[in-house]
Design goal:
Length: 269
């Protein structure tokens, strides 16, 4: 057997192919991982609701999920780690965005809840993609509710608007908040310390493992720090060259069951 005792994997473009189907080879290997007591942990920008059906299909509901890129790590209903946004900064940012970019859709995420103040074309499209439906309510209600930690904001609009917003926000003072583009027209907003890399460290500590005993898999730039920090970082064959260059190894693409191949080659050997 390999020295690997924990696997942390991205979802989209990694264990899902371009038709959003789970890697069929990986599905057949999950029972072997369970027998060897090697947890398989999903790490994604998705919400818990967006990740749960994939975890269920894989049969790994008992494993933690690193949601919102690690802003919320939970097993079932039990929260293991969370890094919510500073609500004062979030409120100031939302006020600024509404003033300067009023056409942009602003979406708030707290645990399993997705909230927005209007069902516009962008939130409707996001609902279609994710299969989730937002709660329509004033954003101030969520920001003022002390029982609701704020795990992520998602701003959606025309690519030119979102990228202009992103360029402008870099000159503003939001010291506790991180901003990054996940698509040309998607701006993700989390607490500064949130990353899949930090989630890797927290999960390794949770299982009392060294980083050398962890294998990570991913296909995009936000996965790269996690790939570099793990004992084995696996880049998908469909990843950009910079991601491949920074990984330990490169597997086949997400359309060629690359994730399953990596697990079989580097874990179940």
């Amino acid at each position: 057997m390999s020295h690997i005792r924990l696997i942390i994997s991205d979802i989209d473009g990694t264990i899902l192919n371009d038709l959003h189907q789970i890697d069929s080879d990986l599905l057949t290997l999950i029972p072997d991982l369970k027998r060897e007591k090697i947890p398989f942990v999903l790490a994604s920008a998705r919400s818990p609701k967006g990740m749960a059906p994939i975890a269920k299909e894989l049969g790994i509901e008992a494993s933690p999920m690193a949601c919102y890129n690690g802003a919320l790590i939970q097993t079932g209903e039990q929260v293991l780690f969370e890094h919510p946004l500073d609500k004062m900064e979030a409120r100031n940012f939302i006020d600024w965005a509404n003033q300067h970019f009023p056409q942009v859709s602003i979406n708030l995420y707290s645990g399993e809840d997705w909230m927005t103040d209007r069902l516009d074309q962008w939130s409707q499209e996001e609902a279609r993609i994710t299969g989730e439906n937002p709660l329509i309510l004033p954003l101030s209600d969520s920001l003022l509710d002390p029982t609701k930690p704020l795990h992520k904001l998602l701003l959606i609009g025309e690519p030119e608007e979102i990228q202009a917003l992103y360029r402008t926000i870099s000159t503003k003072d939001f010291p506790s908040t991180a901003f990054y583009l996940s698509k040309a027209n998607y701006l993700e907003v989390t607490a500064k310390q949130v990353s899949k890399e930090n989630a890797l460290v927290e999960l390794a500590n949770h299982y009392h493992l060294s980083l050398e005993e962890v294998l990570t898999m991913g296909d995009n730039y936000n996965d790269l720090p996690m790939l570099k920090k793990a004992g084995i970082g696996v880049a998908m064959g469909n990843a950009p060259q910079e991601v491949k260059d920074g990984a330990t190894v490169v597997t086949k693409t997400n359309n060629e069951n690359g994730a399953g191949q990596a697990v079989e080659t580097y874990v179940l050997i």
